[in-house]
Design brief:
3 domains, 14 helices, about 40% helix
Length: about 375
């Protein structure tokens, strides 16, 4: 629960353009702390403690999950209906895609549709084989075991999963040396649902043991509008259609971000207005939080400005950019660049990173003469 302090009647409410970061607690604003950057990023797709309210916003069935990912949902419905028709256990499923697009939500929906329980854990949380054994032996027939960030499983734990997924048994070794014994533990048939943001880091043996693969892609602004409208209805937030459109347009194609922005704009509307989210209120609130018209925050813009100001638009090596920005290379490559690449603001060349004409236009910089032309194939087309 974010810290809040009630404003006294004698204290005048400051206009948006005079707000400082110190005023954030007064508005109940809690920015997101990105796992890899250590920065407060409200546009981060990673789950945060403040997103616990999203549990109440999650669709519970496939019928409620009627926004976007149509092909995925149709295929998933066929698999679930077929398994239920045979009174069988659903095959193991792997979801991959950027954070915040609904992988965890789909795991819960699968459990609800199959009428089973879900047991949730994550790759980094399973440090020892005994941690996994304890979970597996408590699964009932048809239960769903959801492992988030499954690519981060320790190798020894992953190897125990092989036989569990394939034969529904594990061989647990006790003692050591000449007294070592292998005890076979038979498991109930279960469904493993794995979620990963980096499918390429999964080992070959692990990938081969999944029977169903689904990639989750970014949402369109129109789909995010429907998500925001549904969330506003559940949270009893008054919002105009153009205010909803403004929030959806800045949500970076991510469902978790649109819900987070909706709640933060609601705080502004409650303190600075009559509680209703209009387009003017949404624009003022999001601009104050550093989220521009394309959903970019200060770190995104600083990254592009550095390439323009220090490296004449590029190409610039990742090592050099990391040193100039005092950021980790992995942070730039895995956190900052993906969305800029989707928008077509940055391209990766054999010689390094380079900004496009679209980036110059967005930053308000004049494009250099004879510079790189914008490639339409790099654009993020939501239509």
């Amino acid at each position: 629960m974010p810290y809040q302090r009630r404003l006294s009647p004698a204290r005048a409410r400051p206009p948006f353009h005079n707000l400082r970061s110190a005023d954030a607690p007064l508005l109940g604003i809690t920015m997101s702390m990105d796992d890899q950057t250590g920065r407060e990023r409200i546009v981060s797709g990673h789950e945060r403690p403040e997103d616990d309210v999203n549990i109440a916003l999650r669709p519970q069935t496939l019928a409620e999950y009627d926004v976007g990912q149509r092909q995925l949902i149709d295929n998933l419905r066929v698999s679930i209906d077929a398994a239920r028709g045979r009174d069988d256990v659903l095959e193991h499923i792997l979801f991959d895609g950027p954070p915040g697009l609904g992988k965890t939500t789909l795991a819960h929906i699968i459990a609800n549709e199959m009428g089973s329980e879900i047991h949730r854990t994550s790759g980094p949380a399973l440090e020892r084989a005994s941690d996994l054994v304890g979970i597996l032996t408590n699964l009932g027939r048809g239960d769903v075991l959801f492992i988030d960030e499954i690519h981060r499983l320790p190798r020894v734990v992953e190897e125990y999963l092989y036989s569990a997924m394939e034969d529904f048994r594990i061989d647990f070794v006790v003692d050591s040396g000449p007294y070592a014994k292998s005890i076979p533990l038979h498991l109930e048939q279960f469904t493993l649902v794995g979620a990963t943001t980096r499918a390429g880091m999964l080992t070959g043996p692990m990938r081969e043991r999944f029977g169903i693969f689904h990639h989750i892609d970014f949402y369109t602004p129109e789909q995010l509008e429907k998500i925001a409208q549904r969330s506003a209805l559940l949270l009893e937030i008054k919002m105009t259609p153009d205010g909803c459109e403004e929030i959806a347009r800045r949500a970076r194609g991510t469902a978790r971000i649109v819900n987070r922005l909706l709640r933060r704009v609601r705080d502004f509307a409650q303190v600075m207005g009559d509680g209703s989210i209009t387009v003017e209120m949404a624009q003022a609130a999001l601009s104050q939080m550093g989220v521009d018209a394309m959903g970019l925050d200060d770190l995104d813009r600083k990254y592009m400005v550095t390439i323009v100001d220090y490296y004449q638009g590029g190409p610039a090596g990742l090592n050099a950019l990391a040193a100039t920005l005092a950021e980790d290379e992995g942070t730039l490559e895995n956190v900052v660049e993906p969305y800029l690449l989707k928008l077509g603001y940055v391209i990766r060349t054999p010689r390094g990173r380079q900004v496009t004409a679209r980036a110059y236009e967005h930053l308000g910089y004049p494009a250099p003469e004879g510079g790189e032309k914008d490639d339409p194939s790099l654009r993020m087309d939501f239509q």
